[in-house]
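Hey forum,

I'm writing up a methods section and want to include a predicted complex as supplementary material. The small molecule is coenzyme A. I've pasted the protein sequence and the SMILES. Can someone with a working setup run it? I'll credit the forum in the acknowledgements.
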Amino acid sequence: MQRECTTLRNTHHFSRLCYNLFMTIVQLSRTHAADAARLHIAGQPGTFLTSLGPSVLTVFYQALPQSPAGFGFAAIDNSDRATLGQTLPANRQNPPFPNTLGFISATTSVGALFMELGTRRIGQFLPPLFARFARQPALILRSVQTVLYPFLVRKEHEHHTGATAELLSIMVEPAMRSQGIGAQLMTALLAECRQRQIQHLDVTVDTTNAAAQRFYIRHGFSLSHKFVLYGREMSSYRLGIQ
Ligand SMILES: CC(C)(COP(=O)(O)OP(=O)(O)OC[C@H]1O[C@@H](n2cnc3c(N)ncnc32)[C@H](O)[C@@H]1OP(=O)(O)O)[C@@H](O)C(=O)NCCC(=O)NCCS
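Reply by user p_vandermeer:
Happy to help. Structure tokens for the complex are below, copy them as they are.
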């Protein structure tokens, strides 16, 4: 039987238990890296970055917010997990969904970010990356494509003037989607872009990812061009920021 919940911010029915969800949006930091890697893998199955595995992605999400070229936000669940009219579940100490409900990340320069990862942060990257390459050598070629990607996609579409940023990833816990968490993360990112006087926000999405494209269009992005990466058609969207 569905319960009626009184909430302050958001309500979530999960495993037939009713929780009050108190969510806060905080700046992305290295402490969110392991959760970000897990959410990335859950949100982008079958993609190249996911195939690099949790260790490489964790190092990536540790490095990103520490870079002058990287920024982002995390949605944190501050819920007390209290159930309404029920005793607390036996596994209260072991919450059914983790603390980080979603995150969004962006960079003011993909090239500068990759350059930093490939120089200052290289020591952190190489051990997990080599371990992955040893198991799956085909990933080496795709890694080279990824490093070249910012230089490939810039060529024909550099018509705009003004500062730009690239939205790198937005991922929400699968069980928590369609409750406005993605919208709140986007709102926080756009406010930060305005503070940084960024005039355009670009995002690249796999053309088969219809839900993500609906989400971007709803937030005002429009299709700017398409290109092929890793043999897949990608759609590049752009938002003008007032
Ligand atoms: C894309 C993504 C980040 C959106 O996050 P989200 O938290 O579900 O986003 P929102 O809830 O703000 O909006 C999405 C949906 O919820 C609905 N919605 C928004 N606010 C809502 C609310 N308060 N209550 C109920 N539904 C709501 C919207 O109508 C939308 O529906 P639709 O996609 O079926 O058209 C999420 O789906 C995701 O993690 N996807 C996998 C990863 C991915 O593909 N990322 C993009 C490429 S990097």
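Some notes you might quote in the supplement: The pocket of coenzyme A is lined by residues 43-44, 169-172, 177-183, 205, 209, 211-212, 214-215 (CB under 6 Å). The CA atoms of residues 165 and 195 lie 12 Å apart.
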